[in-house]
Amino acid sequence: MTLIYSFLFSGFICLIAQIILDNSNLTPGHLTSMFTVLGSILAVFGFYDKIIEKVGTGANLLIINFGNNLTNYAYLGYLREGVLGIFKNMLTGSSLAISATIIIAAIITVFTKAKD
Amino acid sequence: MEKEEYLKLVKELTPKDNKFKNYLYAFFMGGLVGFIGEILTILLISLFKIATETASLWTCLIVIFTSCLCTGLGFFDNLVSKFKCGLIIPTTGFAHSIMSTSLDYKRDGLITGLGSNFFKLAGSVVLYGILSGFIMGIVKVIISV
User: Fold this and answer.
1) Which residue, A64, A105, A3, A13, is CA-closest to B85?
2) Are B72 and B103 in contact (CB under 8 A)?
3) Positive or negative, the Cα torsion across A6, A8, A9, A13?
4) d(CA B31, CA A11)
C-alpha cells in the first residue's frame, strides 16, 4: 500500500511543481528553493513527519524533506543545548544528502568528462 | 507578417499541446522515483533486517549515487530536460545540479573552476533552506513553549 502512496504523493508534488514552472517565469532554481522553504514551514507543526510516516520513502526523497529536516533538527538542538544547539545540530539530518552528493559528485567528476 | 502578429501566433500555437504532456511526464516520473525508492527501502529492510529509517537513508544514498553516475555518463541531462520537474524536485535534481556544474567547470581548474562553481545551482537550495530552517526552528521553539 505504501508503494501506491509513494507513487501518488511524489508524483503529485512533481505535478504541482511542473504546473508552477509552466505557467510562470520561474526557473527550476526558484522552484527547488521554494519547495525547500515550504518543507521548513510544514515542519513547524510536524505535518511533513506525519506524511512521511504514511507515505514512506516517496516523501523522504523529495527536496521538501531537506527543509523539513533542517527545521526539525534545529528544534531538537534547542531542546538539547539551547541557542547553541540550533547552530550545532541544524545540519545533522541533512548531512547525508549534502556530504554524499559532494563526495560522490567529486569522485565521479574525476572519472568522467562533460560532453560537448 | 508583422512581428507582433507573429509573436502572437507563436504564443497561441506552442504551449497548448506541450503543457499537458509536461504535466503527465512530471507526474509519472516523479511518481516513479518515489515508487522505486519505496521498493528499494522494502527490499533493504527484508534483505538486511535493518530499521526503516536506516533503510530509507540507504535508499537516499543509492538514488544520489545513481543520478550522479547517470549525469557523469551523459544521458541524465536529456532525461531532465524531458521530464523536468519529475526529476528536479526529488533528491535527483539536487545531485544532478551539483554534478552537472562540476562537470562543466572541470576544465577551468581545480580551485577557480571546480571548487568555486561547485554549488552554483544548488547553493540557493542550501542557503534558503538553512535560513528558513533557522527561522522556522525558532518559530517552532516559540510555539512549543
Assistant:
1) A13
2) yes
3) positive
4) 4
Q: Where are the domains of chain B?
A: 3-104
The per-residue pLDDT for B9 is 78
A26 touches B at CB < 8 Å: no
Hey, is B90 helix, strand or coil?
A: strand
| Backbone dihedral region for residue A74 (phi beyond 0: left; psi -120 to 50: alpha; all else: beta) | alpha
Compute how many other C-beta atoms are within 10 angstroms of the C-beta atom of residue B115. 14
Residue A62 has phi, psi (to 5 degrees) of -75, 155
Rounded to whole angstroms, the Cα distance separating B126 from A106 reads 18
Name the residue ranges covered by the structural domains of chain A: 2-111
B85 and A31: CB-CB below 8 Å? yes
Query: Is A43 in contact with A49 (CB distance < 8 Å)?
Result: yes
Q: By CA distance, what is A40's nearest residue in B?
A: B133
C-alpha cell recorded at residue B79: 532525461
ipTM score? 0.92
Q: Which residues in chain A have their CB less than 8 angstroms from residue B102's CB?
A: 105-106, 109
pLDDT 10s per residue in chain B (145 long)? 678 888 787 777 765 557 888 899 999 999 999 999 999 999 999 999 999 889 999 999 999 999 999 999 988 989 998 888 899 999 999 999 999 999 999 888 889 989 999 999 899 999 999 999 999 999 999 998 8
